[in-house]
Write a structure and sequence with these properties.
single chain, mainly alpha, two-stranded parallel ribbon
Length: 143
Amino acid sequence: MIKIKLLFVLFVLNFMFADFVLFSECKKEKISCVTELIESAWNKRDGGYVSIVNTAIVELMVLAPRETVEWIHSRKEIEEELLSKWQFLVFTDFSGDKQNELETLRRSLIKSLEDTVFHKMDLIKLKERMISSLKNIKIRKID
């Protein structure tokens, strides 16, 4: 039952990301709804879905960096896991044909973060940690 709920949450997330892209109007209410769904998926994730949930967080951060970084910072468990493991959880190609897509995602995230201005020192430091970490990541392929 948990896997069915998680699959539903991931389906809704994909739909909402499409809505962001199509209408490119990232309103606070939409972002809040998406982060609630991601957090629900995060709390129910297992080995097979960890990568999908973390990738959803990264994709949201590209679209709405300020709101997503603030949300991540308020969830220390998510912040630490994402920063310490996103090389493996997000930027590793397990299917063998996603290297270009993952590299584009990595570069888009770096640019999105670099273009975002934060005024609180803790968020500035988090942004800098993220950018530094992302610049050191090399897309890996698992055969």
